[in-house]
Structures are given as C-alpha cells and as structure tokens.
Amino acid sequence: MKTTGKGLREIGEFGLIAKIRNWMDASRADVVQGIGDDVAVVKMGEKALLITTDILIEDIHFERSWTDPYRLGEKALAVNLSDIAAMGGIPKHFLISLGLPKTLPFSFVSLFYRGLKKMANRFQVDLIGGDTSLSQKIIINICLIGEGKKGNLLFRNGAKVGDDLYVSGTLGDAALGLKILQDKGAKRKSKGLIDRHLSPNPRIELGQALAGKQIASAMIDVSDGLLSDTLHIIEESKVGVRIWENRIPLSSLYRRWVGTYSKDPYRIALSGGEDYELLFTASPKWKAVILSLARSLNVPITRVGEILPEKEGFHLIGKKGKKIPQRRLGFDHFK
Ligand code: ADP
Ligand code: MG
After folding, report:
1. End of a domain among 149, 184, 210?
2. Of the ligands numbered here, which is closest to the C-alpha atom of 235?
3. DSSP H or E run through 302
4. Does any ligand 1 atom lie closer than 6 A to the CB of residue 223?
C-alpha cells in the first residue's frame, strides 16, 4: 500500500486522535464516553466503569541516566490515577505491559515493582495482569480500571458560559524540574521541582470531592500544560475562555529558578506538561465552597479564568492583554 502525503508532524498528536475518532466511531449503546476524555466510560447498571491507559517510553518520557526505577514505578501508576481523578472516579484495578531490553538489570525491574506497589497500596488498587515483551527501549503501558456514579462523573464537555476556571496546586514545576534534570545543573537546590517531575501526586481526593458534591461542571487533569488542557475543555464544551496570566499559581521554587530557563516567567507554567493538577470549571455560586474545600483538603485552588461564549475563542490576558493563536498552546508529541 502506498503511504504518501502529510506526515504526523503536520497533523499533530491531537489532529491524529481526531482522525482516529472519526474512523472508529463507537456504536455500542453502553459506551457513555469513548475517545475524547481523560477516561473511557462504559455503563454498568447504575454504575459506570472507567478505563484509562497511558504509556511511558524511555528517552521520550524519561532517561535511564536520571531515572530512579522505584520512582518510575510510582509515576507509571500515578499518571493513570490522575486521569481517574479528573473524572472524579474511584480507581480499582490495573494491568501493566512492559517492553524491556535484555541488558536491563533485574534490580531495575524489582525496584520498579516496589515503587508500583507503593503507589498501588496508597490508592488501594490491585495489579491483575499485563504482558511482557523484549524491546530495545523500556516501554511501560498501564491500563487502569475504576468506577464512578454515572450522574457524578465530570467530563471535559460540561463547561458553561459564566463558569469560573480553577486549577489546583501550582503550575510549571514539573516542566521546569525536567529542564533542570536535562541540564544536569543546580540539581540539589531545586530538588522540589525535580520531585514534581519524578513523583507526580494524583489528586484523587479532590477529584472525588468535586464530583461527589456536583461542584464542578467540567474537569481535566493538566498533563499537556494549562493552555493545551484548557483548549481541550473549551473545544469539547463549545465555549470560549479568558485566562489571566498573573493569576497562574507559581511555587516559590518555580519563581526562583524560572529566570535561568526562560525570559518569560509564565511560559513554562502555561505550556509545560506533567503537573497532573486538576483544571475544572464551576458556577460562580460555588466560590465559597471551593475555597473551603481547598482548606479542608489542604490543596491550593486558584481561579485563573472564566468561561466565555464560543465565538470569543481563547484569550490569554498578559501584560498586553493579547489574544493568543491556538496552535502554540502546549505539548504535542509530533510537533
Ligand atoms: P490524556 O492526556 O488525558 O491521557 P490524551 O490526550 O492522551 O488524554 O487522549 C485524549 C483521548 O484520545 C482519550 O480519550 C484517549 O483515550 C484517546 N486516544 C489517545 N490515543 C489514542 C489512539 N491511538 N487510539 C484511540 N484513542 C486514543
Ligand atoms: Mg488526562
């Protein structure tokens, strides 16, 4: 078969996923949510089955030279837990498939599983299977299964005009930590940022609280960067958005180190991935409840924007209050 025409670079990761969604439209009546959200949702009586999968590949997502296998095990599960958190679901079981080079020390694998077990125990999920194959680079794929109440789940498509846009925690730390790791410089003093990259903390409890109390209208986890993940919400919800740059929550370590890696203090926080915070929209009537939830769970929650009518598009209000072009919004594997 002849394969010519556009390369994946031109189509981009999300353009490709949109094509796949067209080719493979779901026809079964029990599919509540197929391609297009943080997890797939399948009807199971009163309940909903949640299914999500994520892949980590050596030299794309991590480098062996600076990777501690124990923390890699924790992270492999954490990134999947984060997608269940973004629906407000309860994680339960997972399968793991590994591609491993022959030369890999056995201790790498045993340490990896110890980290995996630590994270599994913390969130009470069980490993129930997987697959193992030879590979030139390390490949880790987890499929995590969870459960939720159908009426409570938070999709990307529920944002309404007039809603506020909130984000948990601080942004940009993981991306800045990765830059510092790759740079091999200044590692000790910036440990907190590197930790954010190596050991993400899935916001399961917050996700469940926002879903259980029906506070949020739409939610996603920030894996590709604030701008890119906001774009996913507004595209699925058919709305516009205004984000105020100077409200983006930044950690003190981020503020201290960002100048070494970027002239623009907000760029990494806006476009850097892998913070695994929760980004959600909620009606203004929930403002006080959200603030008290932040206090009781001891998680910062910041209002960073507001939802506009679709025709308004995407506004990022910086010093000059300019509207930004959507194609430069965040991480894309093929760009
Ligand atoms: P997340 O960052 O939350 O993991 P992604 O951006 O990876 O989400 O994926 C967005 C949606 O596209 C999800 O519904 C995911 O299941 C789906 N998806 C991603 N890659 C593929 C693929 N190769 N084939 C089918 N669906 C895919
Ligand atoms: Mg996600």
Report:
1. 149
2. 1
3. strand 301-308
4. yes
